[in-house]
Amino acid sequence: MPLDKPYLDVPGTTIFDADQSRKGYWLNQFCMSLMKAENRERFKADERTYLDDWPMTEEQKQAVLARDLNWMMSTGGNIYFLAKLGATDGKSFQQMAGSMTGMTEQQYRDMMLHGGRRPEGNRIVGEGGDAQGPVAHSEAWTRWEASHQQDLAADVMTAHAKARSRADAPGAAAGHARVTASVFTSHVPAIGAAIDHGKTAEPYWQPLFAGYEYSKRWLAEQKPDVILLVYNDHATSFDLRIIPTFAIGTGAEFQPADEGYGPRPVPPVKGHPKLASHIAQSVIQEDFDLTLVNDLAVDHGLTVPLSLMCGQPEAWPCPVIPFAVNVVQYPVPSGRRCFQLGQAIRRAIESFDQPLKVQVWGTGGMSHQLQGPRAGLINADWDNRFLDRLIAEPAKLADVPHIEYVREAGSEGIELVMWLIARGAMADVAGGAAPTVAHRFFHVPASNTAVGHLILENKT
Ligand code: DHB
Ligand code: FE
Fold first, then answer.
1. How far, CA to CA in Å, does 83 sit from each of 90, 358, 404?
2. pTM of the model
């Protein structure tokens, strides 16, 4: 099922959704740079040179040079960002809005003084209203379109050919994504350091890494197309200015973060913007308010689980969608909310119309406390009972309140609520068969933490 976009037939209107945002990312970021006086000066002194510092498309640059707002919007611009460019030129919002309507400034101002444009005839494309007519279109845009006619035609033809070949493909009717498995694992920065510094065979580390030997083979055999990796950001990309409860990475690439020792020497993470945007739209429409993040440096919470499961490859084996959960500053989301969100994520994945094998990983935990006189708390019995219950009765486990995690598993043991997102995405929760336990492992200690690890497979 493609994304539901009921807003496409509103005349003279571009809704700024995740697809537009992706298209317009650098154009909008360029506009943001004009919030600084020194940048406005540099831009005004030599627009072309300033624009060439930005990885925008040539069409976006031409649209900016022509100051054609409709053209900029067609390449992904959003009015609140474009307004920074307008302000740089000394334009008001009324002048900017009016410039897109094909009216003169005076005509537009008069229309507003007379009560504004009427909705009658302007609700749906094809009605007789005055917003249906030709839009303001600069000569530069017209010239650009004429000289790129062939590219446009080629694009349309490829889109048609692609649609045809998808429709003709065997099993096309069943061509939707599936959650094939979930993986659960602790993350600890010291594990990443042990890998990066070649210490995995040392006596302290060897028993830990032995617990992931099977997992590495399993992952190589499974060949997922995408991993949705649920993790927490540790005051890395999100500081106390902004604390999103749930954030999904919709960008195309995510760099390993510098957490103070320099970035880990691991490959950048390739995202899956299309699936991530689809998940965002789907679960937000189910009332889970995600934060969308295009620009995100990923810390040990994400890279250490990848290293444990993949070793040290040149590139990670598939695209990874980062999904960050706030477990740093209270209030943190409840186990129940996480479990419900996992179910919504599964429905979102399964409504994506490409036959992708998707794994959902839940990371962090198990018992650990990194602070205060109680630092070093480990509760192996509680952790193992958590693993038992995660397998057999996740819905009941989701009812465990925060305070039990803190009392029993240490203040940082709260990271375990994230595992309930991955568990909620498994088929049995939606009435399917119980998953197969492909692997289970538990080890104390890694630094301050009890390491737990589980692989659950959905039956095909
Ligand atoms: C440790 C564990 C964590 O989950 C973390 O984020 C940082 C440190 C540790 O055990 O040292
Ligand atoms: Fe952590």
1. 10, 40, 50
2. 0.90
